Amino acid sequence: TNQVVALTSAQLSSLASAQVAALSSNAIGAIETADIVGLTTANVAALRSAQLVGLATAQVAALSTGQIAALSTAAVSGLSTNQIVALTTAQASSLSTAQVAGLSTAAVAALETADFAALKSDAIAALSANQVKALTTNQVVALTTAEAAALSTAQVAALSTDAIAALETADLSAIKTAAVAALSSAQVAALTTAQVNNLATASLAA
């Protein structure tokens, strides 16, 4: 690990993917935070989830958006909740649909509200029912109108009553008519007066 610590950003960028893939989690964790941007996207793509365990939160936050996007789905799914919390908004917005879909329910719930709101609409649409169930009310409040519109009927059905009540009126109005029509009686009962008043006529008629 002492040898890894001594590597400069330029030296890291010269490593072959096979060399990076052979590093232990301790060696990965020994990379200086300021130098970690030296890893090429090809090197980052070669990293395994077992190696990423060694990354400190500061190292995670120092990764470029290109490096984050280059991580394999398996590697991203292995990130700890602390590492997920360390993601910047820009990094969160660079996550692919497959990467987001591969996150554990604990990881999804750990996303900071600004980071969750920064996810691509396609990534939101790819969330499983279990991932949707794990959303916090703060995350639901942070949904953008475009993200709310991307929710499927199955995803809306998976929202807790607290989550339904937390939806901003504009976001609720943006949800697909079929999804609103499929709300359970418990979900409908959880709607606030403001939410009901702002629902589109087409949604109510459904």
Automatic annotation (TrEMBL):
Record's keyword annotation contains Signal:
yes
Protein keywords: Signal
Q: Which domain of life is it from?
A: Bacteria
**Gene3D superfamilies annotated for this entry?**
Ribonuclease Inhibitor (3.80.10.10)
Q: Which InterPro entries would you find in this protein's record? A: ALTTAQ_rpt, LRR_dom_sf
Has keyword Signal? yes
The signal peptide here is 1-18
**Which protein are we looking at?**
Heme utilization protein
